[in-house]
Design brief:
The structure holds two protein chains of two kinds.
Chain A lengths: L1 H14 L1 H28 L11 E5 L20 H10 L4 E13 L8 E8 L3 H5 L3 E4 L4 H5 L4 E5 H7 L9 E4 L2 E9 L22 E4 H6 L9 E2 L14 E2 L2 E5 L3 H20 L10 E4 H7 L5 H31 L1 H9 L4 H35 L13 H27 L3 H7 L1
Parallel strand pairs in A: 3-8, 5-7
Antiparallel strand pairs in A: 1-11, 1-12, 2-3, 2-6, 2-11, 4-7, 5-8, 6-7, 9-10
Helix pairs in contact in A: 1-12, 2-10, 2-12, 2-13, 10-13, 11-14, 12-13
Chain B lengths: L3 H9 L1 H32 L10 E7 L6 H13 L4 E7 L10 E4 L13 E8 L3 H5 L3 E4 L4 H6 L12 E5 H7 L9 E4 L2 E9 L17 E5 L8 E6 L4 H15 L4 E6 H44 L1 H9 L4 H38 L8 H25 L11
Parallel strand pairs in B: 4-9, 6-8
Antiparallel strand pairs in B: 1-10, 1-11, 2-10, 3-4, 5-8, 6-9, 7-8
Helix pairs in contact in B: 2-8, 2-10, 2-11, 8-11, 10-11
The chains are: A alpha+beta, B alpha+beta.
Chain lengths: ~425, ~400
């Protein structure tokens, strides 16, 4: 039955090649633009750590003084050193990590080549097991290494390759500025996107190349690089350990909702305690976002991308209205042929289905054009300097999604013209012929 | 031109007429908003920036030992000034559009500190001696810094320099003291305070996102060579800047082997800052053009169908004495009427979309000037699209009327 309809459809489309081509191109353009943007949007809002993200939480506290206090204000997005250390050592979660971004000057071994910058992360020991960071060789450091400021480092595979060869790096000496470190681990490819664990510097930056224990890096004054926000009088403390400033990110793993609830209560209790001690001044104001909630709260998708997506969808709508018009033209023109079919006994339903089959073919062809266009669009986006550019890649769901969207959109555009065409009275049209 | 027969015909062909109106309305709404977004991006790219951009070269030196700054910076500067063609060289904390922002908040009363309520956030440019000349600052009022003021500007590990003088941009001076001269006024951030000695032309912040009213809130401070700054600016003739850049990077790298020297011309700093913006603008233009083409093709399709349907009626009109021109004008007027209806609808829609975007994406209100531009564009597109089918209609010979349908 459908084979017959598709045969009819093909013959009919061949008869009006210009009109058919117009429709295919219009649908292709609309679908191409929308799928490009929808793919980018989907990848930008993807779960960076599938399987782990539901257990990871980001706590917020409000240690600021009363200046500018608003009862329903949001607490700062980072923690002060004292609070980060208190939460870290309280060990209320299954795992917890305090960390900050840094930028180090790497001095290649044996004076080969020029010194260069590498992005770095100074983190407490749980960073690697908590986020499931895969190691190619060696491993991370222990909490004890962190506490006694051991001079150890973990490198990304790319940097280890560049400096020593990835397989020979462990055990080597790494010189960063004026200090040296022993390399104890090399991470395999690992680059979660969005860069969820620190969104202060850019939401889609790449993961870092050098990892150092937090206490070690701070004690050696390896350069920190990131946002810091302060209140009260100017900070005088060089290490910022006692300063009235927030500058650390903190994550905690909580395995069950009950644990999350307990942890939130712990944060409130902690705030009350700090207030009683005179360190906090504001009433307890805590947040505990899970990973996806934290990304949402930080609006990881830039407004410009959202606007472009809306624009692309608007463009698709224009293309679809255009397709409605062209299909109407096409179907009504065939009034004579359809009337013959009706007169020979085809029901309205059968004619309707036949016309939809024809539209589905157009949609499929439009989808193919759209697929090519969106591959081109994604390629164009990848050439952009934007931070999220590298995310713009085609994948399986996108390929299927494009064809499905094209067919669905064309079918919905065809419903009205097809309905109109079946309502023509066959007798009148036949007489006119 | 008689309109009534057109209206009567349109009443009989409601659906194709409605589709044309709808196509034009949608295209108009999307077009107005897209063009608005494009123009905002384009105006971003051409923002005024009161420094000598053409001859400027910027080299960043990072990873030096801050304790040796006071001996290394003068040595580096002397070497840079030795490069042939360098007219001025100086050190600064940052340059406009470099995204390396050092901001601070100041109040206008002595008790204000950085986190006080009614303070104004500004971007700080700390200039070493000669920085004003190297950047090519344009003084508007008062004076720039003197040698004694540069020498007194110790920074060390602190956030703000010692010393008590500053130069502001015009925009900032006007915002802080509207209607008055800023000269002699004071900015406070306990325990620091700075007296305004000069007002210079507007200069952009290192980072301000996209266009916003505070993008020129900039203050300059003189600092001495104890300040561990790392941005070297050099000025030369524009045609020599590429060579100056290469030599400057090589020289700084050779003098400071443990540090990292990276440089670019100021033109590249600016292009990099706006690269995203300009490529996005081109993409929007592309989408608009394609959308208008699709709309036009849709109108061609519908009008052709329409003409084909009415061949006999056209023949009768011709037989009764209508000229070819009359038939041509008939279809053109018809299209004009439909386009007008579509445009009116499209304007309402465009306004609605703008309101939605304003609410969700901090977009300003669309200036009314975009509406007539959108209207004229769509009228033209409509007329252009209908021309072919209308000419075909005009070519229908009167004899068609006599043939049986």
């Amino acid at each position: 039955m459908f084979g017959y309809y598709f045969g009819l459809a093909l013959r009919s489309l061949r008869r009006t090649p210009v009109l058919t081509a117009l429709m295919v191109v219009a649908i292709g353009l609309g679908i191409g633009a929308s799928m490009t943007m929808l793919t980018v949007l989907r990848l930008m809002t993807a779960d960076p750590l599938p399987g782990r993200s539901a257990q990871l939480y980001y706590p917020q506290l409000d240690p600021q003084d009363m200046q500018g206090f608003k009862p329903d204000g949001d607490p700062p997005e980072q923690l002060a050193w004292i609070d980060a250390m208190n939460l870290l050592h309280a060990r209320r979660g299954a795992r917890q990590v305090a960390m900050v971004h840094g930028q180090v000057v790497v001095r290649p071994p044996q004076g080969e080549g020029r010194a260069f910058f590498a992005s770095a992360r100074y983190a407490s020991a749980d960073f690697f097991p908590m986020f499931g960071v895969p190691f190619l060789h060696g491993g991370g450091w222990s909490a004890d290494d962190d506490a006694r400021q051991a001079r150890v480092a973990v490198l990304s595979r790319e940097l280890a390759d560049k400096l020593y060869g990835a397989d020979r790096a462990v055990g080597q000496e790494l010189r960063l500025g004026k200090d040296s470190f022993r390399i104890i681990g090399v991470i395999d490819h690992w680059n979660p996107q969005p860069h969820f664990y620190d969104v202060t510097l850019g939401k889609y930056q790449n993961s870092e190349d050098v990892f150092l224990p937090l206490e070690t890096a701070i004690a050696l004054k390896q350069p920190r690089y990131g946002n810091m926000s302060c209140w009260g009088d100017l900070p005088t403390d060089e290490n910022m350990k006692n300063a009235d400033c927030v500058w650390l990110q903190f994550w905690v793993r909580l395995d069950t909702p009950a644990q999350a609830k307990d942890y939130r209560e712990f944060l409130v209790h902690y705030s009350e305690q700090q207030k009683a001690l005179g360190r906090f001044q504001r009433p307890p104001n805590v947040r505990l976002h899970d990973l996806m909630g934290w990304l949402d709260y930080n609006h990881v998708v830039p407004g410009s991308v959202q606007m472009q997506t809306l624009l692309a969808l608007g463009f698709l709508l224009v293309c679809l209205v255009n397709t409605v018009a062209l299909l109407l033209v096409k179907f009504l023109r065939r009034g004579g042929e359809l009337s013959v079919r009706r007169a020979l006994g085809a029901s309205r339903r059968a004619v309707f289905v036949q016309l939809l089959a024809e539209s589905a073919l157009i949609g499929l062809a439009g989808g193919a054009v759209g697929l090519l266009l969106s591959l081109g669009g994604l390629w164009l986006l990848r050439q952009q300097p934007a931070e999220y550019a590298s995310l713009a890649r085609a994948d399986g769901p996108m390929l299927l999604g494009t064809l499905a969207l094209a067919v669905a959109a064309t079918l919905s555009a065809a419903v009205f013209p097809a309905w109109r065409a079946c309502r023509l009275a066959p007798a009148r049209l036949l007489k006119l012929q | 031109m008689e309109i009534r027969p057109i209206l009567a015909t349109l009443r009989k062909h409601r659906i194709p007429a409605l589709l044309i109106v709808l196509e034009i309305a949608l295209a108009c709404a999307v077009l107005c908003n897209a063009v608005f977004m494009i123009s905002r991006r384009v105006s971003n790219i051409h923002l005024f920036n009161g420094i000598d951009e053409r001859g400027l070269v910027v080299v960043n030196l990072n990873g030096t030992d801050p304790k040796r700054a006071s001996s290394e910076i003068p040595r580096n500067l002397a070497a840079l000034r030795g490069i042939a063609g360098v007219q001025a060289a100086a050190i600064t904390s940052s340059v406009p559009l470099s995204t390396n922002n050092w901001g601070w908040s100041f109040g206008l009363t002595p008790e204000a500190n950085v986190s006080s309520h009614n303070t104004t956030n500004v971007s700080l440019y700390m200039l070493g001696e000669g920085g004003d000349r190297a950047l090519g600052l344009q003084l508007r009022e008062g004076r720039l810094f003197g040698p004694g003021e540069y020498a007194a500007g110790a920074l060390g590990d602190a956030a703000l320099p010692q010393g008590h003088v500053t130069v502001l941009t015009e925009s900032l001076a006007r915002r802080l003291w509207p209607g008055q001269s800023a000269l002699g006024k004071t900015l406070y951030s306990r325990p620091y305070y700075y007296t305004v000695v000069g007002v210079a032309a507007d200069v952009l912040r290192p980072y301000f996102g996209t266009w916003n009213p505070k993008m020129y809130d900039v203050a300059y401070f003189p600092v001495n060579y104890d300040a561990p700054l790392g941005t070297y600016v050099l000025r030369s003739a524009p045609q020599e800047r590429d060579r100056v850049l290469r030599e400057a990077v090589d020289k700084l790298q050779a003098l400071n082997p443990a540090a990292v020297a990276k440089g670019s011309t100021y033109a590249d700093v600016r292009a990099k800052y706006f690269a995203d913006t300009s490529s996005m603008a081109w993409m929007l233009v592309l989408v608009c053009v394609v959308m208008l083409a699709v709309t036009a093709l849709g109108i061609v399709g519908l009008s052709s169908f329409w003409v084909a349907q009415r061949r006999r009626t056209i023949g009768i009109r011709r037989a009764m004495g209508a000229t070819r021109g009359a038939i041509l004008r008939y279809f053109q007027t018809e299209n004009f009427l439909l386009a007008t209806l579509g445009i009116v609808l499209g304007m309402v829609l465009a306004y609605g979309i703008n309101l939605f975007l304003m609410k969700h994406y901090e977009l300003p209100r669309m200036p009314a000037a975009y509406f007539p531009v959108g209207a004229v564009t769509l009228w033209l597109i409509g007329q252009l699209a209908v021309l072919g089918p209308a000419l075909r209609a005009a070519a229908v010979p009167p004899v068609v009327a006599t043939r049986a349908a």
